[in-house]
Sequence to fold (224 residues):
Amino acid sequence: MRVLGNLFTRSPFSPLQSHMEKVSECVYKMKDLFNAYFEGDYGRIPTLVNEISELEHAADLTKNEIRNNLPKGIFLAINRSDLLEILSLQDTIADKAEDIGVLFTLKELEHLKDLENDLKAFLDKNIEAFDHAHRIIQEMDELLETSFGGKEAEKVREMVEEVAYMEHEADVLQRNLLKKLYNIGDQIPYTSFTLWLTILQRISALANLSEKLANRIRMLLDVK
Fold:
């Protein structure tokens, strides 16, 4: 416990960064999942979904370890509640990735060839937003060394703005994709149509939560 306490005192972000690495494994696995769908490799999808679930479980274990060992009664560079809120946002991103995988197991979805490029662009933009939020978390040690100020703080603020813009771009892609999906709604089974609506909603959550995570870090800068 003393070792963990020293770790948190020196850098409360190291455990968060460790957790975020596991979250990123869940998110990046989405590309493999969608590639299997685009290639019509439906037999591979359950295996990929199981892998995503295992990765999400590993992230959960790390989250629980952080919560259970978060020291009390010592000074931390950030408030305990702030750290737990950041941890919760990261954890929810992993949950959404797992949700997307599970949705793909509910039925064998028809190949929407006319929407393939739009789906790829939408997924990529959401993952790009997450990737930038991931990089912000990786920058936290440098922020700590500069007492949340100076050029490093400005760099992180710029990164936060980039995440916000990517989330906006993802919203635009989602609206266009939804229009196209509704245009072909009478050409696919209703169960597939409603399932795709849910999948798109879960994908959009990746960028939405990444923006919330980035903004939460900016709030730390604003109060320092």
User: Anything to note?
Assistant: Confidence is low (pLDDT under 50) at residues 1-9.
